[in-house]
Write a structure and sequence with these properties.
2 copies of one chain form a homodimer. By secondary structure, chain A is an alpha/beta fold. In chain A, 32% of the residues lie in helices and 22% in strands. In chain A, the strands form 3 sheets. In chain A, strands 9-8-7-10-12-16-14-15 form an 8-stranded parallel β-sheet. In chain A, strands 2-3-4-5-6-1-17 form a 7-stranded mixed β-sheet. Chain A is globular, with a radius of gyration of 21 Å. At the A-B interface, α1, β2, β3, β4 and β5 of A face α1, β2, β3, β4 and β5 of B.
């Protein structure tokens, strides 16, 4: 039976290990998995688009393990008290197809996105980067700040959001973090003096959060929010002025900021820089862009981190999602003698909450 | 929070409602959904193939509801006490992306496959069909027999499996069903005198369970087991001799028995026959083939049946898979004040079972 890691369990696990340690551990897993990139059976995610959002499935596997993530993106959700992004995921055994973990991925996605951004910045930004602009101060923003503080060496974050309450929330949440937090009144102001610019905005629109006039030599742009068709954050001239790095090119051409560029617009995949087969930043003055959309391999890496941590620390419980049968060819028999009812752990009936 | 319907809960629900009633209810849902076929955002399933099997994701949505199924196919699993096919699925709200149901789909897949087969046979087989050959007597076979008995009017089933124990299991399971069960020593013998031939074998191989010499005028062939690349059950000459019906053409050309035919081999989609826009069987002598591979819409229909039934009868419990937050933009806050820990229902800690 698969382990089930609920949202409360994931919160408890992260609180126990510490957020920065979890992000660092996930980043280590992502790096290790990106270094064996050719081992994976990769595909662009499957998206069902609707008027107000998208629901996506993101599968990936190597010879031994399989994972997928379910994730939505509905920017209007916050108006009715729901998250813009909700996610869960599964690990499975490739040899048998049996699921081994069912886990929340809302919190974990925030950690893995921040881990990926920080890993890319550590690889691509100038090593002396200390100041980051953080544009979009919603649910993902604090995770980006903490990841860049601990993995990249950022000490100052310049904040902007069209919703001042979002910025106020971030400032309150990170007041004890040791980061210097500078609240700005526009994206342009936030970008001034920044070594790194992180955009993590939620609107499903072709926006231009960063325009060419904001650029300074040597800047690294971590573009996180432009991640589905019709949803961009960078002006085309920003991309033209920069060397652009991506996760998985076929997916990023559809979903990333480069969706607005010609199909042959030159990009470099991050894993190629990590393994040394291609060059990253070529000079201190070059502008680099990490056009991040979120790739299934990062969820694979993060799920394995959470699975290992949950097993090591005793979090989670078993889920009777698959019938337990003495004779697997006798599925029908479960209806005759109720043997499936005798599965060793049946979640508690008192947890039933019916309308 | 989504409703969670475990395998034991699904078994209990089906035992309470009765298997034939569940299959009939699912068949009604499938018919209703096939009649509004153009309403759905359809795609071929995403498959990760490995040495011994395949893991697939099958998403589909209309304007209001989304579903996907996770399902594997590992024929060697039974040798180590696991099911060949294990499945679970999710329903979600298209407007918000929030999951509404997490359900077992191993048992439910067997019911929906049988419901689809029976719906196709009721539409395509001669109305006076009473005798069915059932080749492959594994986990899916009893469900096929019950569905054909109650929805199509079959009274006699002629059985064959290369594993005599599988046939013995089927005979024991269906001894009180009212069906006349005739055990045969070969596929060819089982097919003799049959109005309908159902093949539901598991080997991942290009097999020829049914060959042209076994055909009789007016036969309907319900080919269920040929359902992924490299896995077929019918000889090419059987397909050439018949009028062939499919679920979703782009998927069946890859996965169905017609994978061995040219890309322009003529097929008719079942929904077109159901809504009267295309002809089904053209004469009592014509041979018809339903080249079934299993389509996401059938799982959508089945998940909605199980969801409605679970809500009506009080089965299932709520799953804290998504963080519950007072401010959805404040995901980070869950780590500071533990508000996600205050989710109203946290599955019981005593259910933890760690290695």
């Amino acid at each position: 039976m698969p382990l089930y890691l609920s949202a409360p369990d994931a919160v408890a696990l992260v609180r126990r290990k510490g957020l920065k340690n979890c992000i660092a551990g996930i980043a280590d897993n992502i790096r290790a998995d990106f270094l064996r990139w050719p081992d994976f059976d990769k595909s662009a995610r499957v998206a069902n688009h609707s008027k107000d959002g998208v629901i996506e499935l993101m599968p990936i596997s190597d010879d031994t393990a399989y994972s997928f993530k379910y994730v939505n993106g509905h920017p209007k959700n916050t108006a009715i008290g729901l998250s813009t992004v909700m996610a869960f995921g599964v690990l499975a055994d490739v040899a048998t197809g049996a699921p081994t973990l069912v886990s929340e991925l809302t919190l974990t996605t925030a950690m893995r996105t921040a881990a990926t951004s920080a890993l890319a910045a550590k690889t691509l930004a100038r090593p002396d980067s200390r100041v980051m602009a953080l544009i979009g101060n919603g649910a993902q923003s604090e995770f980006q700040a903490i990841a860049f503080q601990h993995l990249v060496g950022i000490d100052t974050v310049r904040l902007f959001d069209i919703d001042p309450q979002a910025t106020a929330k971030l400032v309150a949440n990170l007041s004890g973090s040791g980061l210097s937090l500078q609240v700005c009144t526009s994206a342009a102001e936030a970008v001034q003096g920044a070594d790194i610019v992180t955009t993590v905005t939620a609107d499903k629109a072709c926006a231009t959060i960063v325009t060419a006039d904001m650029l300074a030599p040597g800047m690294h742009i971590n573009a996180v929010g432009g991640d589905c068709p019709g949803k961009t954050e960078l002006a085309a001239r920003v991309l033209q002025a920069a060397k652009v790095f991506v996760e998985f090119t076929p997916q990023t051409r559809i979903e990333g900021d480069i969706q607005q560029m010609p199909a042959d617009f030159a990009v470099t995949e991050l894993w190629e820089v990590l393994n040394g087969s291609r060059t990253g930043r070529e000079s201190d003055a070059q502008i680099t862009v990490f056009d991040s959309v979120g790739f299934a391999l990062e969820d694979f890496s993060a799920l394995r981190f959470m699975h290992d941590a949950a097993l090591a620390l005793g979090y989670g419980e078993r889920l009777a999602l698959i019938p337990q049968m003495t004779d697997p060819k006798n599925l029908f028999g479960t209806l005759l003698d109720g043997q499936a009812n005798a599965a060793p752990i049946h979640l508690q009936p008192q947890a039933v909450a019916m309308a």
